[in-house]
Each structure stands twice: as structure tokens, then as C-alpha cells.
Write a structure and sequence with these properties.
There is one protein chain. It is built from twelve helices and twelve strands. By secondary structure, it is of the alpha/beta class. The protein folds into two domains: 131 residues, NAD(P)-binding Rossmann-like Domain (Rossmann fold, 3-Layer(aba) Sandwich); 192 residues, NAD(P)-binding Rossmann-like Domain (Rossmann fold). The protein has a seven-stranded parallel β-sheet, sandwiched between helices. It has a five-stranded parallel β-sheet with strand order 2-1-3-4-5. The longest helix has 20 residues. The radius of gyration is 21 Å and the shape is globular. The structure holds nicotinamide-adenine-dinucleotide. It comes from Sphingomonas leidyi. Its EC number is 1.1.1.28. Keywords: NAD, Oxidoreductase.
């Protein structure tokens, strides 16, 4: 199959080329992001392969359909950037990689939690300057803390299990479908507003849907326990960034770890170190000593990249052969996501 791979980074190319050996797809690697201005580059390709911040709205899908594209293959789990109704109307199938490595994201989440709480990046910056003073680096034990996990699907369940069984936390959870295996190890499901009022740490692992957009907003922060730590490795828009900044300024929010950011599409995955970044909200976030930000890298492990490439290319082969698409994103079934 002829596949136009948008938004290609060196690591995408490496893992896709390696995984393509048994499939023999014709891969066109494109550096630009998929958006209305670049969609025509896919003309003549039956599939496009895209990532989290590519724009796959109705306008883009119409250009793709006119150019002969019949498959959008997301090399990620989330699909909030795709207009599924438009895709269906235009006869374009959408596939994703639902579970390339939940361990990659879950482990990174725990890493961020520990890093921000124990001030590891700040300590490292000091040590590099031969400053071995410990003042200002006091953290808290994770053991015994009350952690709220919002979304206990593949990733959230691993985080909840690790916190409960590994660290001995009191784990509260909120999900549309409680997981009996987690309940069996003592994870307690609560309605989201009660969880948000009770937790000392909240970690987000639900998808971005109209219902979950800004689930951490001014009201949630106001109702939260003072000093709340918020960890988000899911999707940026789960948090109202302006409200988060206010929460940090008035010291209601005690620590924040973000691997995703509401307006990340204009920033992440690019080297902007020689540029002027005009996103004032992001720049403000960077000024807080108790905020840790990474650029959407929770998924970035050897294992995950290999699994993403394999699943994506297998879906393309299935589409080409007319086989059922195991990882198809179904607009009707996934209604809450768009
Ligand atoms: P999943 O589909 O296995 O789990 C999502 C869970 O959220 C499900 O159990 C679902 O019932 C629950 N949910 C849906 N709506 C909810 C709501 N309103 N309130 C509470 N729970 C709700 O997904 P997953 O593989 O665990 O991934 C979770 C999220 O992580 C994805 O949506 C994606 O956005 C994000 N993600 C981020 C990275 C990264 O690199 N930072 C990588 C992969 C996935």
C-alpha cells in the first residue's frame, strides 16, 4: 500500500522502516504536519499515517478523499484530533494503535510523580553546579498518600496497581466502568467530584472527550485539598491551563507534572530552542518551581515505537487485503470521543 507518513521524526522513520520489511508497503516520509495546507501532499496514497497533533478535520479529510486516500492510520492511541463523522461520510476508515505499550506511559507517570515530588530535576541542576545543599528539596513519601486515578483503562489500571500494590498508597479511582481486579486489591471507586475533593495527588488517564474536557477547572481546584498534586500524561485539554496557573499562584495547587499541554500542537515535537515562544501561558507555567513539564514523551520507549510501527503497518495490510480492521475507530461505538 502507498502510505504518506506525515509529521515524520527520525525515530518514526527508523521503526517504520524496520517493521516494514515483511509488509513491503511503499512509505513516503513527510516532515510537515498534516493540516489543510499539506493534505494535498498525500494525493495518490491510499493511506496516511499521522500522530497526535496532526489535524484530521473535515476539510483535511475531504482533500485526502479527493486524492484517493481511504485509510487514516493513527500511530497513537488517542483519536480526539480526527473528525470521525466526516471520515465515515467520506468512506475513509480510521485505525489507531490502542495498546502499544501501556507500561511505557504508566511507568513515565510514576516517574514524573516521583520527580516533581522529590524535586529530582532541581536537585540534579544544583549538583551540576556543585551545590550540594538540601534546603528546599524536602519531598513527601508516596507511601500512605491518597492518589486519585481518573480513567482506569490500560494505562490507569497499571498506575493504580503500581501505586496500590507497589507504593502502598490509598488509591481512589473514577471510571465509567470500574475494574473488579483493581477493587480486589483495595482500589476504591468514587464519583469524580468526590475523588477530586479527597485526593492529595490526581493523575489523569481518561481520553479527551467533550465530557472530560477541562475536568480539572477552577471549580475542581477550589474544591480540592490544599497542596493538590496534578499529573497529566493523557491529553492537555483535560486541564484548564488558565485555572491551573491561578491555582498555582494562590498555592492551592502544590505541584504539577505535565507530559501534555492544551496548546501543545504549536510547540511539542519541535526544537524551538532558538525561537521566541509566544505562548504566554506555557511560559508562565515554566516559571513555577513546582511544575515539571515534558514534551509528550511518555510513550517514547523502544518497545512502544516497535509496537506502534508493527500495528500500523499490519492495519494497512489488512485494509489493502479487504480484511476486517481489528483496530478500527468506530464513530458510533466511540461516540463520547467525538
Ligand atoms: P483506555 O481506553 O484503555 O482507558 C481509558 C479509560 O478512561 C477507560 O477505562 C474509560 O472507561 C475511561 N473513561 C472514559 N471516559 C471517562 C470519564 N468521563 N471519566 C472517567 N473515566 C473515563 O486508554 P489508555 O490506553 O489507558 O490511554 C489513556 C489515555 O492516555 C489516552 O486517551 C491517551 O489520550 C493518553 N495517552 C498518552 C500518551 C503519552 O505519550 N502521553 C500515550 C498513550 C496514551
Amino acid at each position: 500500500m502507498r502510505i504518506a507518513v506525515f509529521n515524520t521524526k527520525p525515530y518514526d522513520r527508523r521503526f517504520l522502516v524496520e517493521a516494514n520489511a515483511p509488509y513491503g508497503h511503499d512509505l513516503l516520509f513527510l516532515e510537515p504536519r498534516l493540516e489543510p495546507a499539506t493534505a494535498a501532499l498525500a494525493a495518490g496514497h491510499q493511506a496516511v499515517c499521522v500522530f497526535v497533533n496532526d489535524t484530521v478535520d473535515a476539510e483535511v479529510l475531504e482533500t485526502l478523499a479527493a486524492g484517493g486516500t481511504r485509510l487514516v492510520a493513527l500511530r497513537c492511541a488517542g483519536f480526539n484530533n480526527v473528525d470521525l463523522a466526516a471520515a465515515r461520510r467520506l468512506g475513509i476508515d480510521v485505525v489507531r494503535v490502542p495498546a502499544y505499550s501501556p507500561h511505557a506511559v504508566a511507568e513515565f507517570t510514576i516517574g514524573m510523580m516521583l520527580a516533581v515530588d522529590r524535586k529530582i530535576p532541581r536537585a540534579w541542576a544544583r549538583v551540576r553546579e556543585n551545590n550540594f545543599a538540601l534546603d528546599g528539596l524536602i519531598g513527601r513519601n508516596l507511601h500512605g498518600r491518597t492518589v486519585g486515578v481518573i480513567g482506569t483503562g490500560k494505562i490507569g489500571a497499571l498506575v493504580a496497581r503500581s501505586l496500590r500494590a507497589g507504593f502502598g498508597c490509598e488509591v481512589l479511582a473514577s471510571d465509567l466502568h470500574p475494574d473488579p481486579a483493581l477493587e480486589a486489591i483495595g482500589v476504591r471507586y468514587l464519583p469524580r467530584d468526590r475523588l477530586l475533593r479527597a485526593a492529595e495527588i490526581v493523575t489523569l488517564h481518561c481520553p479527551l472527550t467533550p465530557e472530560t474536557r477541562h475536568l480539572i477547572d477552577g471549580a475542581a481546584i477550589e474544591a480540592a485539598r490544599p497542596g493538590l498534586m496534578i499529573v497529566n500524561t493523557s491529553r492537555g485539554a483535560l486541564i484548564d491551563t488558565a485555572a491551573l496557573i491561578e491555582g498555582l499562584k494562590c498555592r492551592k495547587v502544590g505541584a504539577v507534572a505535565l507530559d501534555v499541554y492544551e496548546q501543545e500542537a504549536d510547540l511539542f515535537f519541535e526544537d524551538l530552542s532558538n525561537e521566541i515562544v509566544s505562548d504566554d501561558m506555557f511560559q508562565r507555567l515554566l516559571t513555577f518551581p513546582n511544575v515539571l513539564i515534558t514534551g509528550h514523551q511518555a510513550f517514547l520507549t523502544e518497545e512502544a515505537l516497535a509496537a506502534i510501527a508493527e500495528t500500523t503497518l499490519r492495519s494497512a495490510a489488512d485494509a489493502e487485503a479487504g480484511r476486517p480492521l481489528e483496530d478500527r475507530v468506530d464513530a458510533a461505538r466511540m461516540a463520547p470521543s467525538k
